């Protein structure tokens, strides 16, 4: 309970210390009687400088702490298009109409220190302004996401929005083509110095893929215009029970028409892991894994963009990743039948996996006129992972021994093409487009017993899938207070899975509509009300539908389910934001045909497979507060409370219902202009979903960050999981058995990172490509 007291005191201090501004300057910026959107307004005198950005209607608002005479300047595309001296002693309205006769002054760079909001609520997303956050200075991409409201980041469970499952990650609106460890390493190669903001999209609009039953994270890079070379090198050490390292190097080069970027990344890791699994019932099992995970990898990313003329440009993006993931496992398993031991097994396993991924994207962008655009994109992805699993099992009951080699060769290929139109009109903004995707997977599994091929346990599986999508989205700023966005996406899928060994084929197809709706009411700058709705789909990955058996021991195996169906989500949210500092969101989420991996006894074997077996209704409330109550203190507080009610079908499981609760507090203290101290804590209390009861987790972390040489050298030292609360444990309920799990993956660690950059301080922004179908190739 002591953590609740900490949070309460935190909130009280924040509200008591919050600044109250005396004057407000607002107005509308127009040019030749047309509104100027996203222009920069700078207000300054010898004592103070503040700034803001106009909205879609050209409106702006500035809070001015001191009564005085100021200079007001307007910048558009880094060009000063207006300047005027204003006296501010009360609230004033300053409407500005700029004519062609105004003198425009081109400048190299505008540097301001203002009160840009740390967190903003847009019509379909929450925006975390990284460049205005003390906590996010000198960090990599993963650490930046950890500091973002609503997000929870863990190297083992991945990245998620609190209260939801995993999310997809985008760069500049284009989905990344990485999963698992590759995604973590790629995000660690990004630096917060080059990130402008992080957008959390809890209910994605029709433009984006309907795949994924949660949300999207969009990392927006800074729009820099300087030409020439830019270099960045970083290295990181992570000490848990074992040492892990990572290294990154980036070189950018830009001219007036050409933009290029080359990124190199390398990593190696080693950590201990323990997994305990118990099944209690008529047939029972006690299994203990003591595991060493280790591996290494490297990758490269090359981007090139060329401006053909003022209206069009072409580009190419290539990414390669090579990784080795290994596990040495010592397992003891005791099987009982009616409380009598019939097998007492000791197994040593060597798991060796090699993955090589190639991604190629090509695009052509065309400006139809000053605001309308069309984009044509082609994508190709190839992955050829190879896995060998060797295990030796000794049965202490009868002194027998099994020596087994499992080999797997997989060939994933995904190709897609899409065309997107962005068509702003006076009365509405229209977005529409189409996408065609072809997926194929040819996998071969070989099972050798004493080096002799066992055809009955070997398999060849061929899988093909084609997806066709069409979307339409309309958005409109009705007036200064009301905004609306509505969209509809249609996706048609055709699936064909064939097991050569089993001579079994599964074919089916389906077409579904995915609507989305957003409505925002903003009576003034202090209050924002929002409501949104969307429907989503979660398609299984390839491994989940492959019907053959992947053995981890002579009596235990994993198998896919070729009849596994996608699950569907309905999401509804109602939100309120006060001064873009405090927000509260109530949500309802309905999950139909939810699926997961379940383990049961089938004869003498313990079998893990995937099934659609539950529906679930989830209700909840999110509260967050983000502010800089003092110049030297930045804080973020987040609270979540939810209730889940599940309905189980198809299996003899016991449905669970109950509440869940999560809270976090992140604090950054400025010691001086170069030194920062961090103190963060989050805790997830026990929760229930489907037929599973998940026990709580937590993470207390602290550290320091040092910024030297005019921010060219960044050093950070952070200790995580100080209380050793990053454990995964819970219970799974069936009619005839109860299963218990308790796992720990070496979460307590100390991370040291160093980053140095030189050359031209800023570079042009390069394009990223939406190609998230690759996420299912695992």
TrEMBL record:
Domain of life according to the entry: Bacteria
Residue span, Outer membrane protein beta-barrel domain: 371-756
Annotated localization: Cell outer membrane
Membrane topology reported for the UniProt record: Multi-pass membrane protein
UniProt main location, coarse: membrane
InterPro entries in alphabetical order: Beta-barrel_TonB_sf, CarboxyPept-like_regulatory, OMP_b-brl_3, TonB-dep_rcpt-like
GO CC terms of this entry: cell outer membrane
GO MF annotation, one: siderophore uptake transmembrane transporter activity
Keywords associated with the record: Cell outer membrane, Membrane, Receptor, Signal, Transmembrane, Transmembrane beta strand, Transport
GO biological process: siderophore transmembrane transport
UniProt protein name: TonB-dependent receptor
Native source species: Elizabethkingia anophelis NUHP1
Source lineage: Bacteria, Pseudomonadati, Bacteroidota, Flavobacteriia, Flavobacteriales
């Amino acid at each position: 309970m002591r953590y609740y007291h900490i949070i309460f005191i935190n909130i009280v201090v924040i509200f008591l210390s919050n600044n109250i501004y005396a004057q407000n300057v607002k107005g509308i910026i127009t040019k030749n009687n047309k509104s100027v959107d996203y222009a920069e307004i700078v207000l300054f005198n010898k004592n103070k400088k503040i700034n803001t950005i106009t909205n879609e209607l050209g409106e702006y608002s500035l809070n001015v702490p001191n009564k005085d005479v100021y200079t007001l300047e307007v910048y558009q595309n880094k060009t000063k298009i207006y300047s005027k001296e204003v006296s501010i002693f009360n609230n004033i309205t300053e409407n500005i109409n700029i004519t062609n006769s105004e003198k425009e002054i081109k400048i190299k760079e505008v540097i301001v220190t203002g009160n840009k909001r740390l967190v903003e609520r847009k019509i379909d997303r929450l925006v975390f302004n990284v460049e205005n956050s003390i906590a996010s200075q000198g960090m990599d991409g993963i650490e930046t996401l950890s500091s973002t409201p609503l997000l929870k980041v863990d190297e083992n469970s991945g990245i998620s929005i609190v209260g939801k499952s995993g999310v997809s990650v985008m760069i500049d609106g284009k989905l990344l083509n990485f999963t698992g460890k590759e995604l973590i390493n790629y995000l660690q190669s990004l630096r917060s110095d080059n990130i402008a903001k992080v957008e959390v999209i809890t209910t994605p609009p029709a433009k984006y893929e309907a795949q994924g039953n949660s949300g999207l994270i969009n990392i927006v890079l800074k729009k820099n215009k300087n030409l020439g070379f830019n270099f960045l090198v970083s290295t990181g050490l992570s000490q848990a029970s074992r040492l892990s390292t990572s290294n990154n190097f980036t070189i950018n080069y830009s001219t007036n028409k050409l933009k290029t970027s080359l990124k190199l990344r390398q990593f190696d890791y080693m950590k201990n892991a323990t997994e305990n699994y118990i099944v209690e019932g008529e047939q029972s099992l006690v299994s203990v894994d003591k595991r060493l995970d280790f591996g290494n990898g490297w990758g490269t990313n090359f981007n090139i963009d060329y401006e053909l003329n003022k209206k069009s440009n072409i580009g190419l993006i290539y990414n390669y990743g090579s990784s080795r993931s290994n596990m040495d496992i010592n397992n003891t398993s005791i099987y009982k039948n009616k409380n009598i031991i019939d097998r007492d097994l000791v197994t040593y396993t060597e798991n060796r996996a090699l993955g090589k991924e190639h991604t190629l994207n090509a695009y052509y962008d065309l400006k139809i006129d000053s605001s309308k655009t069309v984009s044509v994109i082609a994508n190709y992805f190839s992955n050829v992972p190879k896995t060998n699993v060797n295990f030796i099992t000794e049965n202490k009951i009868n002194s027998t021994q099994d020596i087994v080699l499992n080999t797997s060769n997989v060939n994933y290929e995904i190709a897609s093409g899409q065309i997107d139109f962005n068509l702003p009109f006076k009365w509405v903004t229209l977005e529409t487009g189409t996408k065609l995707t072809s997926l194929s997977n040819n996998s071969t599994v070989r099972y050798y017993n004493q080096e002799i091929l066992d055809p009955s346990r070997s398999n060849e599986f061929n899988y093909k899938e084609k997806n066709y999508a069409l979307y339409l989205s309309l958005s409109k700023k009705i007036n200064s207070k009301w905004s609306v966005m509505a969209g509809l996406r249609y996706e048609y899928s055709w699936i064909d899975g064939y097991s050569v060994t089993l001579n079994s084929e599964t074919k089916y197809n389906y077409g579904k509509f995915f609507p989305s709706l957003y409505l925002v009411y903003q009576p003034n700058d202090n209050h924002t009300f929002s409501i949104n709705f969307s429907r989503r789909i979660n398609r299984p990955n390839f491994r989940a539908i492959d019907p053959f058996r992947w053995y981890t021991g002579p009596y235990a195996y994993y198998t896919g389910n070729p009849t596994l169906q996608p699950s569907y989500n309905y999401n509804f949210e109602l939100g309120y934001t006060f001064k873009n500092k405090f927000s509260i969101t109530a949500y309802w989420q309905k999950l139909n045909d939810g699926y997961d991996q379940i383990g049961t006894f089938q004869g003498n074997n313990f079998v893990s497979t995937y099934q659609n077996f539950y529906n679930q209704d989830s209700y909840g409330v999110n509260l967050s507060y983000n502010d800089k109550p003092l110049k030297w203190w930045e804080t973020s507080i987040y609270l979540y409370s939810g209730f889940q009610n599940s309905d189980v079908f198809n299996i003899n499981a016991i449905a669970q219902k109950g509440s869940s609760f999560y809270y976090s507090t992140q604090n950054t203290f400025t010691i001086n202009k170069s030194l920062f101290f961090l103190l963060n804590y989050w805790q997830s209390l026990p929760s229930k979903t489907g037929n599973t009861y998940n026990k709580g987790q937590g993470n207390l972390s602290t550290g320091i960050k040092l910024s030297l040489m005019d921010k060219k050298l960044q050093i950070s030292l952070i200790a995580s999981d100080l209380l050793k609360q990053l454990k995964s444990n819970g219970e799974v309920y069936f009619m005839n058995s109860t299963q218990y799990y308790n796992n720990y993956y070496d979460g307590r660690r100390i991370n040291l990172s160093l980053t140095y950059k030189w050359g031209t301080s800023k570079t042009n922004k390069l394009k990223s490509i939406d190609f998230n179908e690759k996420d299912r190739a695992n």
